[in-house]
């Protein structure tokens, strides 16, 4: 556990040395603060648009941070050849993957907290009412970002950076559409197609589960039960992604 | 000795089974708590937003176009956009109420013929009714419907029908006041009186007192 912790701390330190993280977070804060663009709208419309935009910005920039952070956490060690030194020490490849992920968890937690605090501060400043739904939506966005990070990290253990960026982005888009895809496939009578679609539906991450922000902004109450189940789904997916990452990293020749 | 690593992959694959069960439970909860979303494929930026999972932003972009059309007097162009916005976010009350109002009032005013005016009034009413079907547990759209029947259609019996529904849910005092007026216009004076009596305990006390006085002295309160 200590080895994983040391690796995680190093990953966090490494991330703060890079300018990319700061630039992404800065862009996100600028986007959230740009709510003044909506000043021409009525207060009710403004409220919805500020909240919508902020949630979307936090999620999208969180996705970028998770994807690029996870990719560079693994690939920079390989490129700089520091991984040889690491793996000759009594650090297993499993320790390496778990340590990197734990490090990513803290990086994302810090950056997400900055964006979330800024957003909540903006709502407070604009005197826009907040309820538990706002915090539930933020929490599920964070869980979604963690799932994205686990997938990107897992892919980083056995693919090139370019392929990883394309695959992670593709999974991100598809992950938001699997529900619709299943509805469409549900209309077909072909059992083989249906079975294949069901399999894909289970294997691909369903990011739509985490997307409650569209409901929160229009005042639909989100029960805690839903938040807990979706969090369980997220944790389960992270475990699966990390296991796959560990498997491929252990088979990889470095 | 080389360690076997295939059990890790097997474990990962086996975990997809409970994951499938969790997903089924989430699907059930989504239906139970009315958290489903609709997909609307459309060209342009809004379509890209939908594909990336940002339906709220897509609806907002469309809404900004609605505002633009409204301020430039292009009322007819607003109609398909209203339909898109409410398809994407059927629980956004403002989109329903403003859409219904635009059709029943502004578009109807733009049309020259009597039949055309009546057609757009009906379109507005139908649109609001559709909104009610998505949001049956809030007073807002019942009130909008009741008010449109009362003010635009002068159809007091239908107005009473929907305003009665509106006051069944938590609502501001003016909703009950409009219901009282609708009762009076519909010839149900006693019921109108009852509603204003109820309002004596609210922030509408002053208005209610005046209405009761007018009803008792003049025999009518609503001009």
CATH topology of the domain at 137-223 in chain B, what is it called?
Serine Threonine Protein Phosphatase 5, Tetratricopeptide repeat
Q: What is the count of β-strands of chain A?
A: 0
Cα distance spanning the termini of chain A: 24 Å
- Count of DSSP H/I helices of chain A: 11
* Chain-averaged pLDDT of chain B: 87
Given as residue ranges, the uncertain stretches of chain A (5+ residues, pLDDT < 50) are none
Q: Rg of chain A from C-alpha positions?
A: 20 Å
Annotation, overall tally of beta strands of chain B: 0
Main beta sheet strand tally, sense and closure of chain B? none
**Which residues of chain B sit in consecutive blocks of at least 5 with pLDDT less than 50?**
none
Oligomerization state of this entry?
heterodimer
Strand residue percentage of chain A? under 5%
Question: What is the H/E string of chain B?
Answer: HHHHHHHHHHH
What does this structure look like?
The complex is a heterodimer of chains A (254) and B (223). By secondary structure, chain A is mainly α. Chain A has one domain (2-251). Chain A is 79% helix and 0% strand. Chain A is built from 11 helices and no strands. Chain A has helices at residues 2-17, 19-33, 43-79, 82-88, 93-125, 132-156, 161-175, 178-185, 191-203, 213-216, 224-251. In chain A, helix 2 (19-33) runs parallel beside helix 5, helix 6 packs parallel to helix 11 (224-251) and helix 8 runs antiparallel to helix 9. The longest helix of chain A is centred in the first third of the chain and has 37 residues, at 43-79. Chain A is globular. The model of chain A has no long low-confidence stretch (mean pLDDT 87). Chain B starts with 5 loop residues before the first helix and ends in a 5-residue tail after the last helix. In chain B, 39% of the residues are buried. In chain B, helix 2 (45-51) runs antiparallel to helix 3, helix 5 (93-110) packs antiparallel against helix 6 (114-134) and helix 7 packs antiparallel against helix 8. Chain B contains 11 helices and no strands. Chain B has helices spanning 6-32, 45-51, 55-71, 75-88, 93-110, 114-134, 139-152, 156-166, 173-185, 189-199, 205-218. Chain B is an all-alpha fold and 223 residues long. The interface between A and B is large, with 54 and 38 residues.
